[in-house]
Input
Amino acid sequence: MTADSTRGSMADDSLIQSARAHIVSAKSITVLTGAGISADSGVPTFRGENGLWRDYRAEDLATPEAFERNPRLVWEWYNWRREILSNKKPNEAHHSLVHLESRLQEFRLITQNVDGLHRLAGSKKMYELHGDIWKVRCTSCQLVAANHDVPLLLPPHCRTCGGLLRPHIVWFGEALDEQILSKSFQAVESCELMMIVGTSGLVYPAAMLMPAAKAKGAFIIEINLDSTPYSPDVDLSLQGRAKEILPLLY
Ligand code: OAD
Output
């Protein structure tokens, strides 16, 4: 199958109608989301112009080495991100995925986002591949706890053992939770249709989910402002804002 895509500001109506027909008839749908779905809530994406913080790239801060070198600097970045997120709300794209979940027996949402907006919107059948910015984990006793302090007083310490806390997030160079990853692969390998929304497709192993779905014969729809490495291989590529396109699809 070849890619059927528009280049421009908004996917044209015939592509929307075609996507709609596939979605309405699909019995099982798995959705993969990335930072682009939260962009319209005012959350900066990682690789866009607004993704930078004090001239650091995410790749320079979201690593175990960066945390070992300078935990305060890494925590200051997370404090900045928590502050941005603290007054952000889910947008129409998050809400429309909740609606889709309510219509299907077989639905899974896999997100790379750590912002908690899908949960806030009401998504339930969801795997958070990269963790949760609103949780902390002790580097000593490994205890995970919810924490919504904005800002978090630095450096934060574990209430149980006094060890240094870190964000409960998967950093570059770290392994993803095995169970979550294997359930995510099961979800893409067993679905009839997969939607990929607002991700650059550059971060592994998340980037392997689309090829895994395709190898099992799923119909793939991409929704993104831009073209991505996925675009040539998907069945339908809808270019535009997730919050405008998703509500048109079901
Ligand atoms: P990126 O910042 O790499 O990509 C965001 C994508 O969203 C881009 O392809 C944009 O074109 C698209 N986009 C932006 N605004 C959009 C909109 N309104 N509607 C639709 N699409 C839009 O973010 P991710 O692919 O999510 O890891 O990045 C993957 C991982 O890299 C993240 O989970 C994060 C980061 O390091 C961790 O936090 C561990």
Remarks:
- Residues 34-36, 39-40, 45-48, 51, 58, 62, 112, 114, 130, 169-170, 198-200, 202-203, 223-226, 228, 241-242 surround 2'-O-acetyl adenosine-5-diphosphoribose (CB under 6 Å).
- Strands lie at 28-33, 106-111, 126-128, 131-138, 144-146, 165-169, 193-197, 219-224, 236-239.
- Residues 43 and 81 are 9 Å apart (CA to CA).
- The two ends are 23 Å apart (CA to CA).
